[in-house]
Amino acid sequence: MSTLHLLHPIRRHGVRALSSMNRVSAGLAAEPVGFIAGVLVLAYVLGTLLAPLVAPYSPPATDLAARLAPPSRAHWFGTDALGRDVLSRTMYGARVSIPVGLLTVGISAVAGTALGMSGAYFRGGIDVVGARLVELLQAFPYLIFAIGMMAFLGPGFWNLIWALALKGWIEFYRLARGETLSQAKMEYVEAAHAIGYPSSWILVSEILPNIVNTVTVVAMLRLGYFMVLEASLSFLGVGIPPSIPAWGSMISDGRNVLFVAWWVSTIPGLALLVLVLAINLLGDRMREILNPRRRTG
Amino acid sequence: MRLLRILQRVLLAIPVAVGVAVLAFFSLHLLPGDPVQIMLGDTNTSAALIRSVQHELHLDQPLHVQLALFLGQLARGDLGTSIVQHRAVTAIIAEALPATIELTVATIVIAVLIALPLGLAGAIHPGSWIDRTVLSISLLGASMPAFWFGLLLILFFAVDARALPTSGQIDSAIGVPPVTGFLLVDSLLAHNGAAFLSVVRHLVMPALTLGVVFAAVLARTVRSSMVDVLHRQYVTTARAKGVPETAVVVKHALRNALIPAVTVAGLQVGELLGGNMIVETVFAWPGLGRLVVNSIFAKDYVVVQAAVMLYAITYVAANLVVDVAYTALDPQMELG
Amino acid sequence: MRPGRWVIALAVLLSLCVANVTGVYAKTLGFVLDTTANRATEAQAIVAQLNQAGITAEVRVWQQSVLQAQILAGQRIAYTTDWGSSYFDPFDLAVPKYVTRARGNFSFYSNASVDRDMTVASTTTNDAIRKTAYFDAQHTLFKEAPWVFGYVLQNIEAQSTTVQGWAPAADNSESVYPVSLRSGDSLIIGMRTDSIGTFDPAIPPNRDTETVLRNIYDALVAHTLDGKVVPQLATSWNKVGPAVYDFTLRAGVKFQNGDPLTADDVVYTFQRVLTPGAISGQSSPRKDLLGPLVRVQKIDDTHVRFVYGAAFPEVLLLQALVHFQIVPQKYVQQVGEAGFVAKPIGSGPFRYARGAVNSEIVLERNDAYWAGPAKLRQVVFRMMPEPSTRIAALLSGEVQIIQEVSPDLVDRLKANPSVQVKTAEGTRSYEIELNNKMEPFSDPRVRAALNYAINWDPILRDIYHGYAKRLATGFLPTGFGYDPSLKPYPYDLAKARELLKQAGY
Fold first, then answer.
1. What ipTM was reported for this prediction?
2. Among the listed residues A159, A132, A129, A135, the one whose alpha carbon sits nearest the alpha carbon of residue A146
3. Subunits that touch chain C (at least 3 Cβ pairs < 8 angstroms)?
4. Inter-chain residue contact A140 with B260, CB threshold 8 Å
5. Over chain A, what is the mean pLDDT?
């Protein structure tokens, strides 16, 4: 009986995580702002998945005779310099922003958390190397870093994700390192030590579940940031290749014709703004619900 | 003791700056493209002449030799000569830096002007409709893609309203004798009101573009730390003593609430200096960010290395200043 | 289950694969069209056309510098390129683009007869023979179609109606000496570039830099707006021998610091260019523009002699001299190279007052100019790389002249009565170059098929609003020795399919 008991975690975080999930969804449903944000994000995700079915035109379909046409019944949001439908291209644009954002955040969060936790827990060489690396990368301006990387790698979906994630992990590293340091002092960890659990088990089964909420909230808030960053790079022409419709490059396409066709830049920018706003709102609510002590800030 | 700590931190900036420059060296040298070929454009030049120019720039040497040359130069305090402009990099950067600093300062001023009243208004009655509006506005600002917002501003102000200039730093007809390189300062030194006004008008749109995002972050920080402080013991005591509410907010609470705001502002300065190149491009602002981006594309690595070192030093310095300001505002804090 | 059966089955399968790869079965033509941001729209329209014609193609947009490196390494097969000619002679366009292994020969094209023609044209002093050589080369090139031949775009610029006496130049340079304003005497020009290069005339790699320099400095000869050579600091010249030219200098010309401009300054200017490493340890990248020039020597204070190592056509020397502004020897030696670049002094109609290469450059009138002072007191060259910003600035009266108006925005400007759009013949050839060394474009039939398969008319009409003209080869109509009898490849899909079929597609 007692040996069986030993294999159970000291803290019953399984129940805790479940209850926090419930708390988040219940909290969001109860609040109009959070609810609207949730619905918006859901709508974007659905739009992304269903774009081929609902988009009125094929995004690469050019029609030189109808180039730079203003919004009309045929083209709700007008056409661009090649006569392509702005609405359809904007819908397809979400298929770049959402996956790039999610993958970048995912890779950054996993890598950063893993490195930060091991650095804080094992200390020694791994911690020193990590700290120096972080110091160096932090002093390197992010955008220049990403432009340099992209110029080196060339435009491309995965290149973009690597260029963003290569510095994106730092935030998670610092967070996870700090949280792990404070958790490691807590009695439940010391208890686990005393019982003789292996370090890796303590890290993964004891500490990780207790910092995963914080990491999730930060990941949510970084998601919007990465999407804007992706658009910035595509705007500069070093992001997504132009054969794929992406919001940043659409905005960039439109700036040369800003005064004769305002819609080419405005619509994809608006799409990006609304999505990022909805995600940030959601992240913000999540933070409050999961950690009512900290309030916003 | 504290001075020693500061000195230690200052010295620590050197290896970081050199490390960053070496990182820039490698990433640029590994990039495809040859600065001489790019510079020559359409010129009808023989292969022999191209080779000799490459040789003069040491581009035909192996990478480790070039790195050694670069580090040797650096040790002598020589940052090198730009490949494209044929001028000392220090002179080129010194020319671009004031424009960027001016834009950064203007951005911070605009951000504070927006963020402080918003944050305070939200904090006085947490949870009220004012507070919720403030939070929504700041979230909107934080979600704004700056380059797109800049385009919208141009579309609205420059063409339809024709109220503000779209590019440049000052009305070209006005000449101000360069003393500091900062046009705002120089126009004041010259007692030229028209020039000062012109500089301010040119600053508004780019600074607003950058300031909106920055203000959003700042407003939230001000609000939350204000909420926090207003519930502390000494504020309650002051209220109980019958100190008027305005005085409570301004005299007692604000000073303490500013500490986190200063931190956020300081840490953002680094981001601002390095992240404004898109806005500089949109508004043709002759600052450091645009210089670096153009130099990356022209493979003028001499300029990129030096600028990136400057960014690194600024970043470390900003952090240090934040820490010092922290201890100044709150004597209980220890300088870490 | 004997192993023999398996071997036979495998052999059949393998031979099927091989047959497939070697083209026993019909294959379709497919390639990536590489381009840069400024021509992405056009490239996408072309690819859409090709896809409809059954040719698989897709666009890839690159940074100019990265694409150029990949092209030079022979790693790309089809790419949009352009090349400017400021000589009004194919010498600085056709020679670098078509001669075997020349600097701009991005298509790796090689043809002995074209090489021979170009040698004749750049070493013969007889114009009739030069013309014949150029004609011959054009016919060969048209037949072999090393590129998808493109078009030439007009220079579209615009001015406020307060500007008088200005017109755009064929080589994009803005000469503002004759310009005046209806009200005021300070002119601002919105430049298309992000930054000009440097103030040292021995270095400038591009036209925008020279635009500014030509207003600060004078050269021995100058261009008219349509590219004719006229005297500037040299009043006359004559050919003493096939490889020797003498120039007579204008008397009484002074630099902006008051020093007289003499034969010594001319000799020094060319010495700086010809001597390797003469500019703080670096060689002038412009040296080769002068051809096989050996030295420039002083005859007396107002006469200099250009001595060549081999015969060099007079027209090429004169066209080159337009680009070599004369610098003050005494001043440069006194303040050093760095001091000179920081505060340049020339003998031109405007002197440098202040400004930086990446923001704006303010020039002020040189009252002692040898041809009389300019009407403008001040000229400002302001860098405005964003096309929309230039338009907005012109419309709001912030600037009075803007370079490079996008064809899409011309109508917007024309609707405004206070601005005027003006055009000049372009001197830049735009094309799609094909890698002649690599499959599938090593086959001339495939290259010709591609020339037939693209319908340029709607592209030039809709995207460039008719401001572009087709070219039969890369040669420009504004250049010497252009053969007007060669007509561009027509759009003929049937012929394209026929050629592709012959080539095995």
1. 0.82
2. A159
3. A, B
4. no
5. 83
